[in-house]
Amino acid sequence: MPDRGSRPGHPTIHITAPYWINDPCAPGYDPRTGLYHLFYQCNPQGCEWGNMSWGHVTSKDLLHWTVPSNQPVLEPDHDYDKDGVFTGCFLPVMNHPDNEQLTVFYSSVRQLPFHWSTPPYPRNAAGLSMANSIDGGMTWEKSSRNPIIQGEPEGIQVTGFRDPFIAPWPEMDTLRGQRSLYGIISGGTQDAGPTAFLYAVQEHQSFDWQYLGRLADFPLRFQPSKKWCGNYGINWECVNFMDLESESASATRTCLILGAEGDVERPHIERYQRPVTVPARTVRSLLWMFGDLAAVSNHPTDNLKFGFKHGGYLDHGSLYAANTFNDPISGRRIMYGWIPEEDITGDHAREKGWNGSLCLPRQLFLLSLRNVTRAIRSKLADITSMEMVIEPDGSTTLYSLGIRPISEITQLRTKCIQAYEAQPFSLPQSTHNESRIGHTSTSCWELEATVSLGPSCQTVGLRIRCTGEESVQWDIVFSLVEETITIDRSRSTTRGDVNTCPEQGPFTLFHTMTDGTHTEELEKFRLRVIVDADIVEIYANDRFALATTIYPGSHAAEKMEIVAFATGDEESARFEQVNVWDGLNGLESLVRDEEIGQLDHQRH
């Protein structure tokens, strides 16, 4: 079987498959074998949605992944899951040396179609099922108890009921006065709002999920800020709960991440005139929220609620269906997500030979910014994605969700084909507002830039353009005036069957008061760009992430020129450091089929 990364234009460092894939499922770690496990929904029969099954990859280091030969590992082959093995989760492995069993849970779909927009949702269309492995995850067997939950709770007309997640939740233990694991199944209540259905699960009887009630009561289309906070929609998918800790371990916050389905599209997508041959994108957003847990009554069910305090976008691009786990080795909360390919036609996907991929693993954490005085333009109190805390000394600390690629990703630079660093420079100049940084000779590369910005700078960014056809280009633009980061894809392809709408999200920089000197400084803009064939991921200042796709078509294999630009007063943007790593990992795929991995091991 050929190396998956050997096909022309194929991603090198992202997980994908030679067919349709979507949601990452059941990330987890097995301490007995030292293997990380990651599954994903897929259609092994083609590049379009359908025949929902689970693919499976394993890793020793969260970088290099092996694809077992028995794909898919779970298929829709029973009456209770005949219409699909949907998204699921990994039962955390507790410290029980006598238990050699691994367990995953999944949404077992017995009736399609269903969707929040076409009520009523059919009763018991999706239940909860489980599968076990006693050979370290090599093979999986569905439980004879399936489905362990037939469907949604009695007496509730739902808009959805799927995507289980399970984990310890100490704060919930404290509220209930007893210890257990907690499971949630995502969805919503008809005409009431989105939610997650909460269950208590005993560690030694993981097949027994006891319903506790709806975890959240939010109104339809809840949106605390039209700029800084996404629309929480009508139905939730893939809800995860977690406690996030600051890097100094001085603060923690309870966090939900979720996919919000709804009917309110982001303006920059809705306004864009896409080709008539490409369907509109699904209206949805990948969001997070911080909040508090509380017992709101003495009633035995429906009394434990999560209340919103702050929130925002987990990813500002097309990424969706995030799934996380707590890595017991490093203590990090690690997240995966699905990069869909809704901007191309089905024929285009079949022409490529794959449809969809998973983003690089990201670390989620509690970000803290100390001694903050103000943002570039917005009032601090208006930025609903930031929690503002006044310290005893009168200074202001901001807390938000931190997000960045896991640190292991930097190891891919060591085997790159070429690396270079640009000399510092300032823009704009009196004669020009652009400066060439260099070029890339491969379609898998990374860039890091640190830019200090003056008060008169209006925009700063990067332009990536084809050296052979300068009409093919795409821009990353940070607007200090609008407080947004945008990827302008309008000229990113010569094909007429691609939706090239912009990707955009809110972002600002903060002024801080330096210790000792008591002078105010604007934090530097720190941009990281990772390109892998059609996939683009950008990150900024450990609190902004955006994944999307670019389809240069026949120009994909050509050299791309990297150009910096800025507008505003002369020399108002100082590019202090720019590094480029071209040909990450020596262009060797991080995803290898099992037979190839075994041969490589035998050679060494």
UniProtKB/TrEMBL annotation:
<dbReference type="InterPro" id="IPR001362">
    <property type="entry name" value="Glyco_hydro_32"/>
</dbReference>
<dbReference type="Pfam" id="PF00251">
    <property type="entry name" value="Glyco_hydro_32N"/>
</dbReference>
<comment type="similarity">
    <text>Belongs to the glycosyl hydrolase 32 family.</text>
</comment>
<keyword id="KW-0732">Signal</keyword>
<dbReference type="GO" id="GO:0004575">
    <property type="term" value="F:sucrose alpha-glucosidase activity"/>
</dbReference>
<dbReference type="GO" id="GO:0005737">
    <property type="term" value="C:cytoplasm"/>
</dbReference>
<dbReference type="InterPro" id="IPR013320">
    <property type="entry name" value="ConA-like_dom_sf"/>
</dbReference>
<dbReference type="InterPro" id="IPR013148">
    <property type="entry name" value="Glyco_hydro_32_N"/>
</dbReference>
<dbReference type="InterPro" id="IPR023296">
    <property type="entry name" value="Glyco_hydro_beta-prop_sf"/>
</dbReference>
<dbReference type="InterPro" id="IPR013189">
    <property type="entry name" value="Glyco_hydro_32_C"/>
</dbReference>
<dbReference type="GO" id="GO:0005987">
    <property type="term" value="P:sucrose catabolic process"/>
</dbReference>
<keyword id="KW-0326">Glycosidase</keyword>
<feature type="domain" description="Glycosyl hydrolase family 32 N-terminal">
    <location>
        <begin position="16"/>
        <end position="366"/>
    </location>
</feature>
<keyword id="KW-0378">Hydrolase</keyword>
<protein>
    <recommendedName>
        <fullName>Glycosyl hydrolase family 32 N-terminal domain-containing protein</fullName>
    </recommendedName>
</protein>
<dbReference type="Pfam" id="PF08244">
    <property type="entry name" value="Glyco_hydro_32C"/>
</dbReference>
<feature type="domain" description="Glycosyl hydrolase family 32 C-terminal">
    <location>
        <begin position="408"/>
        <end position="582"/>
    </location>
</feature>
